Amino acid sequence: MSNYSIKKNVNMSYEKALEKVKDELKKQGIYTELWDLVYNIAYITGADSIEDISLIFSAVKRIENNVDKDENNNIEFKKFKPARKMTINNAFYKPKTHKRVEDLKGEIAGDFVIPYPPGIPLICPGELIEEDHVEYIKELQDENIEILGIKDDKISVLFQY
User: Between 3.50.50.60, 3.40.50.410, 3.90.100.10, 1.25.40.10, what CATH number should domain 82-158 receive?
Assistant: First the structure.
């Protein structure tokens, strides 16, 4: 299995950092279209002035300068290339069951597993779930990263007769 990772140093918990960003931007009357700790999308129009645009940069700079330096958490976003056991279409229509995260090794995914951020599927239906996936999912859960495809600490896998 080949994989790579992007390490993003975040000097506080993910949830706390998100709240700080959100609060700071709102204080400045800045409401962005789509944002997260790693990115922020703000639309500008012809009606926006240079001062309006400068407010965004100033708010981000203040957030960066006010980060609590005593807390040092690292969020590592990884991408894997799992073994595909069947097509997404075939896996999607197969009977499924749900298993706890710690019991997933060797199972075939029945649904997408998508950590957010970065919002890129970690595992797709029909892919083999390996120990590296299980360990990474646990790391993300420990950091309170939202993971689409996990409900009640269980993931949809193909029913094995």
Answer: 3.90.100.10
